[in-house]
What does this fold into?
Amino acid sequence: MKKWIIFPVILITVFALFFIITPGKSRTKSYYSGDALAFNNQVYIATTNTGSLEVFKLEGKDLILISKSKPFNARFSTYGDFYDAKLSEESGRLYVYAVSNYTIYKYEVGLDKLTQVRESSNTYWEWYNRVDKFGSNIVTVSAKGVKILNPNLEVIVAHDFKNQDAPYNVSGNDRFFMSVNEAANKLEIYDIESRTVVKTIPLNFKFDKGNRRAFQDAEGYVYVVDDYYAKKFDVSGKLLGSFQHLDYQGFDISGTVNNEFVYFSNGVGVVKLDKAMKEKDYAWTGSMGGHSGWAMGLKAVYANGDKIVVFNNTNILVLDANLNKVASVSSIEEESTSAIENLFLKLDKNNVFINSDFVLSGGGFLPNEELSINFANKLTTAKADSRGRFSTTIKVPVDAKKTNQDIRVDGVSSKLHYSISIRVE
It folds into this structure.
């Protein structure tokens, strides 16, 4: 790859820092995967790498956060984590699907919020690793295989095709599923019609497993990147072209709707290739979005030209067709991974009346943690201070029952929770 040789010392340093830094009292969440979609000629991005479903919109040179949320279990009054998300345009509307444990959710994406449309939990204990859109079908991916869903999020077809070690590495369309199997150094192509693996293509990996996916363009050609080459095949497995990169870890490869170029990530940066697998451009992304960049997940979309979305470790990065930076957003640093005191809650009064106010305070949560408060079947929010303490005023709702009522406070990140009782007169 021309001109990349000027970076060896810098790249080795970045590589070493990325893998040697030891987490202490503070840490930064890593962005390593997600989805992107062009809707009404604007770029939307979704990721669940922080445990929350985060949806961003590209506005000029800024990535604007539309929503950040965690799944709420009303039965146990607890918050969980999302594991994967997929954006989808349907009948002129934008939706995002997300999975958590045994449940898949569907939300409509608005200007500044998400509105839940549907929720469906399976009853056969299948833990969803991913949700995706293979061609026109919404699918779930787990250790048990790939399942195609109908609009009601019910399973209509199940395929016994899986990658148990790395479910992220399964991709597909309406005809073929593909799985990058790092442990066995191969790409497997599965024919949906015959329900069999029709081709196994050798690959070569030397690094630990990561998020790696193959891409099939509109002409049916398959593109994949291993730890030495980006490669182009036909579905019979014939090698049609290759490009040798820097022997760093190959991650994602993606193309655009106009079918002119493919882009791939290999940790240190992003490379742009034409369909003959000839280099057209490259960008080193180590410091493009801030510090400690490491290009992993990648998605190319077309909105006023190619836009390449890179999940770049400490940031999400958007590049243009020339691999120049358009925008970026940094992940949120969590100031502490543990509470500094035991949980406690306090009330300024023991008895309250309908439509009156009372003060709830407490502590023992993570510093600066978002809190969810459940009282009389109404949810409110608060935020802990730098010591993990909070104080907030709560109004007694008009439909509250006149009895002893529990007040429960949940730490959104820590999952810590504590309850106290108050008498409603």
